[in-house]
Amino acid sequence: MPFSREIKRTIALVLTAALACCMILGGCSQQMGAQSSEQEESGPTSRSYMADMNEASDALKEKMASFSDAVAREDLVSMRVQADGITSVIDQMSQMEAPDELSDLKQKYVDACTQLKDALIAYIDLYAEIDSSTVRNPFDYDGYADRIGAIQAQYDAAVQALQDADKSATEM
To answer: pTM score, two decimals?
Structure first.
């Protein structure tokens, strides 16, 4: 069952915001990498950690772009595959060893990305529920606005968390 234009537009806008969040993370990682290389006392551990984070944020941006493409094609299977890839990258980020001076910053980024991942999964679930509706089992559009609003709030919280992490990074 094809999605209404309004639903697709709403989901596309939120996914664009999610991609922008990933770009924020990538930009900050590059900035922190430059700052870390200037700090002699931090040593190579900080530089290598930030290089790894930068790589992960680039991978995250690629996965989010692929996810957006899958949404544009209304390809639920590809959306799920890309979401799994996004989850994998976020899991890798959370498993990276951060030097002590960057551990709080790392946690802020991981928490923000996890919020982003949770919102993404909620969108996929909503998308799948609408897509699988039939004449006999129609989608209940009465609760749609509340559900999409709650998911949007998750995204907004993730964006704010990424901005807060960026602010912390620039203050280091």
So the answer is: 0.72
